[in-house]
Amino acid sequence: MRGPYLYDYAILRVVPRVEREEFVNVGVILSCPRKKFLETRIELDEQRIRALDPSLDIELLQKQLAIYPLICQGGEAAGPIGILPQRERFNWLIAPKSTIIQTSPVHTGWCAHPEAVLERLLESMVRPVQPSPCIHL
Predict the structure, then answer these.
(1) Strands (E), 1-137
(2) Contact between residue 93 and residue 82 where contact means Cβ atoms under 8 Å apart
(3) Who's near 109: CB < 8 A, 6+ residues apart?
(4) Is the pTM of this model over 0.85?
(5) Where are the domains of the chain?
């Protein structure tokens, strides 16, 4: 159902070997300015990432990904970017980068509850697809 609030989101991706252009979706960044909502949720599936690059430093990756929610929250803990207005922080987070952490193009929609949209996006875009039960004929 279309809600009264416009939102934008991007999928957070890990691209272990940038030259191969293979990636694993690991999170969602969602901005809903009229609700003053900016949040990143991350669910790192180490097994899927290691399938693309077994040598990737997962601990370092986790530290780098932990910065995204801090920037969304804002404040001094997020460094100089944390003091920017909320929309500028979103724009900084989604800016194209050539590192192993990248974002998808930005998508837009309407919602009543951005928290629910964020959860739905995590389920559909980040979490591994669960196999359907087999039906034997």
Answers:
(1) 5-14, 24-32, 37-42, 101-103, 107-111
(2) no
(3) 6, 7, 9, 117
(4) yes
(5) 5-126
